[in-house]
Specification:
It comes from Rothia santali. This protein is 81% helix and 0% strand. With 310 residues, it is mostly helical.
Length: 310
């Protein structure tokens, strides 16, 4: 029972991060399940079964708070689900072999997202334009496939890529990715059930993760609506940098790539830099809001002065 309660709390915490930053539910949950000795395919199957419920609750919550761009969902959901289905059927050691390559790409995207939003001026950013559909469909295919073979990848691939475009409001990116992930989770789960049956899938684990995630979903969707775009973007980008740095500091079988003790030190430096970046953008956001209030006050005083002169 204690293990199930811990899993529910992990599901709650993972969904808070996933629902507010657009990623990490699968990565966090998969990491935990691997530590208790489940096989990679069973881990991914367990997580995706739980995500059917959590993503449904998350999508409904994001819809309620107006965080979804349905055009993005329309282009990405079905291709992502189909790719996840096939990914579930080909989950082998090749998934681990591809992890370092994907981590390098995602690390680069994370650095770009953080750099882009750190260098914005004090005024709050605006988001205009659309990401073409012919780019959204292959993005969904790659993200869905990686999600199935890695136990988590839809958000880590999709969220920073869309954020890097600079055309879509971060809360719309996060809400749309979370909403379309329901179809991806269904596709992956069907693939795993056909390939594995019920073998290796621990239903109590699924339910524990599901309960925690469903409780957290509306809270996370509310946080996305409240948080400023640059804070969301730097938070998501920093999480991508941290998780993929961790992946690159490990091998697929032999443990640490770098000498013992160096890896944790590197991760600590990355985490501290991430925290400093969030503090920086919070200060810029406060400065931007002060400037807007000052400009609005000056405009109001000028309007009053003009009326008096008349």
């Amino acid at each position: 029972m204690r293990k199930l309660i811990i899993l529910a709390l992990i599901g709650l915490a993972a969904q808070l991060v996933d629902g507010s930053l657009g990623m990490a539910y699968g990565v966090t949950s998969s990491t935990l399940l691997l530590t208790v000795g489940l096989a990679p395919a069973a881990v991914s199957a367990t997580v995706h079964l739980a995500e059917i419920g959590t993503t449904l609750a998350s999508g409904a919550s994001h819809w309620k708070f107006g965080n979804i761009d349905w055009r993005i969902v329309g282009f990405m959901a079905v291709p992502g689900g189909v790719a996840a289905f096939f990914g579930a059927n080909v989950l082998t050691a090749s998934g681990d072999a591809a992890a370092p390559i994907m981590s390098v790409i995602l690390l680069g995207l994370g650095v770009y997202v953080v750099w882009r939003f750190l260098r914005l001026p004090d005024r709050r950013p605006s988001f205009t334009g659309k990401v073409p559909g012919f780019l959204l469909v292959p993005l969904a295919g790659v993200a869905g496939f990686m999600d199935a073979i890695g136990g988590g990848g839809w958000g880590p691939v999709g969220t920073p890529t869309l954020l890097a475009s600079g055309k879509i409001h971060p809360r719309k990116v996060i809400g749309s990715i979370d909403a379309s992930e329901f179809v991806v989770s269904v596709g992956a789960s069907v693939g795993f059930l056909l390939a594995l049956g019920h073998q290796g899938i621990n239903l109590p684990f699924v339910l524990a993760l599901l309960v925690g995630g469903v409780i957290a979903a509306p809270i996370a969707a509310y946080l996305v609506r409240w948080l400023a775009p640059r804070i969301l973007a730097v938070g998501a980008g920093g999480l991508i940098i941290l998780t993929n740095t961790r992946t690159l500091l490990r091998t697929d079988a032999a443990g640490e790539v770098v000498p013992a003790g160096v890896g944790p030190a590197i991760l600590l430096i990355v985490a501290l830099a991430w925290a400093a970046g969030i503090v920086w953008v919070i200060r810029k956001e406060v400065a931007g809001r002060r400037a807007e209030r000052s400009a609005a006050g000056a405009a109001a005083r000028d309007a009053v002065g003009s009326d008096v002169e008349r």
